[in-house]
Design brief:
about 750 residues; alpha+beta; five-stranded antiparallel sheet; about 10% strand; disordered N terminus; disordered C terminus
């Protein structure tokens, strides 16, 4: 039994488990026994493992190093996501906070575009657009396709794909701005820019940016992409007062937005970054460099080809005017000043039909510019103005100055100047109405009226002359006598009756045109001479319509009051015709065409004028300097008369000849030699006899009838004054102030 037991394996004791229980449990193994001798049990394998650990700490393996970098990337992604989520929550909360401060979305509406006035000529040709925008709105399919391409390429290349906000573009812009250390690129989409322009103030605040984003998303839900782009292109500011692509195209290129080429579209798109700084009106070279960047962006996005981009980049930049160029803009400004009186405040887009003949308008501008370009420097004259109208007052052309781009001051309507001798027809009309005739004779001799002594331009005196000759030669002494004979107040009343609205001084010097008037007033005062004697109020607007064709205003036609009688009309036309035929206005002769007019020159040739007319047109021209400095002997009979002839010949091309209204039989007075006085049978000195009455039919003869010679005493209906009229006589009663004012002879 002993031997049998010795052969069996030794059974180790267990804790709290019966000896015979062979089931599993917590047992003490041989490795767990304590050894009395102090020897440690052999642990070869764990020792090897510990050694490996020590080695791994000293020099990590390649596999362990890769695992650490992966864990870093993973953690970075994780925390970025966490940060992004919290940032999104914060942005959403911030946007929500500022959204509450906006009005209810149900009340949101795109504000109406500021109204535009489309001003057109007689034949419907566009003269100009006027309004806060400076141009008319255009449909997207009406404008040049290069314009939206260029704008999208440079401003918002993912415009077709985002929903009002472009996170990719925004992130890219922020990275570039941080790298540069300054703001070099904006992150706003076209929709955000439109929202800002339509609804918000231009403030750089967090609140405005949040509201801009909200409104941009609303616009994307409300309108299509094409509608948003169309709104943007018609509202955005392009500099120099031009809002919208059509206004900018006309401003910088003098053409409609539908006609803009690739190079011009690139310039327009480039302006959006900084309209004032990049304006071709200020810096054409800088505008061109910016346009090259736009063209590169268009090429990148496959809007254009390499050849197209290369050709556009090689175009030489032209310097645009600082303002709209062309004389027609004086017309546009004049029209806009008259709109409120006709239709009130401009609240909608309108079309204004004017009386302007655009071909005559261009001709008028060219005449003024060409004359000043040729004669301005050597004659020391820098400015000119022209007004032309029909006998009933319809303005056909208006040039307010040499170049609108340089000066927007309208010298036709705003500048009051002395008309000089161009005012004399009004003086002579008053004299004719008081009983004088063109054949009435007065002495061209020194005249003293109070402390004033008028002198003729050439400082010569001609002795006895008829009023006809006196007016044609523009003799100042005779005009002064006429004023004193009829009274200065009567002359003022005559001028106002003819349409002059300016205040006139009722004194003797009014004979020489010393009271200031506008060129428009002066020309309109001549209109009754051309239309048969009726008042002609100048006008330029025929009709105003809205875009649907509804008539908002239409000028009524009515018969104007008669302001010049037939007798005086025939006389004044005969006298003013002689000014051109044989007087100071010879340079204005139109050959076989019957014309009349009067020159005017002020002291030291500061102002030079010619106002003349045919049966078809009345035209007035002025040359001078804005600072009122003297010209170099520019008279009404020189540059103004020459320019008048050039313009009127062009205006009357292919127009049939027509006679001026009124009839007068011209007579020539024979000036007798001076003889000693003799006594008549009654013992009194010879006195002028009362002229016999002429037959009324004889007065109706044509102006070109053969004049007949009559004796001096048979011409005038009133006694002739002595040659020294106006001088102090030793044996006469001294004149009183009343005598001087009312023409008394003392």
């Amino acid at each position: 039994m002993t031997s049998k037991r010795s052969k069996e394996a030794r059974i180790e004791p267990t804790f709290d488990v019966p000896q015979g229980n062979k089931s599993g449990g917590f047992r003490v193994t041989s490795a767990d026994r304590s050894v009395a001798s102090g020897k440690k049990p052999a642990m070869k394998k764990p020792a090897a493992k510990s050694s490996a650990r020590r080695k791994s700490k000293k020099k990590p393996t390649r596999r362990n190093r890769g695992g650490g970098f992966g864990r870093f990337i993973g953690k970075s992604i994780y925390w970025s996501l966490v940060l992004g989520i919290w940032l999104g929550i914060g942005v959403a909360g911030l946007v929500g906070y500022y959204a509450v401060k906006l009005p209810q979305s149900a009340s949101w509406n795109v504000p109406e575009r500021p109204p535009n006035a489309r001003i057109v000529s007689l034949d419907g040709e566009l003269i100009a657009n006027r309004g806060l925008t400076g141009g008319a709105a255009m449909r997207l399919n009406e404008m040049s396709p290069y314009i939206p391409m260029a704008v999208i390429a440079i401003e918002d290349r993912r415009y077709k794909y985002h929903f009002g906000f472009d996170p990719i573009g925004f992130t890219r812009a922020m990275v570039r701005n941080l790298s540069a250390g300054r703001l070099v690129q904006g992150g706003s989409t076209l929709t955000q820019q439109l929202a800002k322009n339509l609804f918000l103030e231009p403030e750089r605040t967090l609140e405005r940016k949040a509201q801009e984003l909200i409104l941009a998303v609303w616009l994307e839900t409300k309108y299509s992409k094409d509608e948003i782009l169309e709104l943007y292109l018609n509202r955005v500011y392009f500099g120099s007062g031009a809002y919208g692509v059509d206004a900018a195209s006309r401003r910088y290129f003098s053409k409609s937005a539908r006609d803009v080429n690739l190079a011009e579209a690139a310039i327009l798109a480039g302006l959006l970054k900084a309209p004032s700084k990049l304006s071709p009106a200020r810096n054409p070279e800088l505008a061109k460099e910016r346009s090259k960047i736009v063209l590169s962006a268009m090429l990148r996005d496959d809007f254009i080809t390499k050849d197209q981009a290369s050709a556009a980049k090689n175009m030489k930049p032209g310097k645009a005017k600082h303002y709209w160029s062309g004389s027609e803009h004086y017309v546009a400004d004049f029209v806009m000043k008259r709109l409120p009186a006709l239709i009130g405040e401009l609240r909608e887009d309108v079309v204004v039909d004017t009386t302007i003949n655009f071909s005559l308008q261009r001709e008028a501008g060219e005449v003024i510019e060409a004359t000043l370009a040729k004669e301005g420097t050597k004659r020391k004259v820098s400015q000119g103005a022209l007004i032309s109208m029909t006998p009933n007052g319809a303005i056909r052309a208006m040039v307010g100055g040499r170049e609108y781009a340089d000066s927007q001051y309208n010298r036709v309507t705003e500048s009051k100047r002395q008309p000089g001798s161009a005012f004399k027809p009004i003086v002579y009309l008053a004299a004719l109405e008081a009983g004088r005739t063109p054949s009435s004779v007065r002495q061209d001799a020194p005249v003293k009226i109070g402390n004033w002594t008028p002198v003729n331009y050439d400082r010569k005196y001609r002795g006895p002359v008829s009023l006809d000759i006196a007016l044609s030669k523009s003799l100042n002494t005779i005009a002064a006598q006429m004023v004193m004979e009829v009274g200065p107040k009567n002359v003022v009343q005559t001028a106002h009756r003819l349409g002059v609205r300016s205040k006139l001084n009722a004194n003797a010097s009014i004979a020489l045109g010393t009271s200031e008037v506008t060129l428009l007033e002066l020309a309109s005062a001549y209109a009754p001479f051309a239309n048969g004697g009726r008042l002609a109020e100048p006008y330029i607007i025929r009709q105003i319509k809205d875009l649907d064709g509804n008539i908002l205003y239409s000028r009524k036609t009515y018969e104007d009051p008669l302001v010049v009688r037939a007798r005086e009309l025939g006389m004044i036309n005969a006298m003013l015709s002689n000014v051109i035929r044989k007087g100071t206005g010879k340079a204005a002769s139109l050959g076989d065409r019957e014309a009349a007019g009067k020159t005017g020159t002020t002291q030291n040739s500061r102002d030079a004028l010619f106002v003349g007319y045919t049966a078809n047109l009345i035209t007035g021209i002025w040359y001078g300097n804005d600072d009122n400095s003297a010209t170099k002997k520019v008279t009404g009979g020189s540059l103004p008369a020459q320019s008048w002839k050039t313009f009127m010949n062009a205006a009357h091309k292919d127009i049939p000849l027509a006679s001026l209204p009124g009839f007068y039989e011209q007579t020539i007075a024979s000036i007798p030699t001076v003889k000693a006085r003799s006594r008549t049978a009654t013992g009194t000195a010879n006195q002028p006899a009362t002229p016999s009455l002429q037959n009324r039919e004889q007065r109706q003869r044509q102006v070109n009838a053969e004049p007949r010679r009559r004796s001096l005493s048979d011409i005038d209906g009133v006694p002739r004054p002595p040659s020294n009229v106006g001088q102090q006589q030793q044996q006469q009663r001294p004149r009183t102030i009343l005598d001087l004012l009312f023409g008394g002879r003392g």
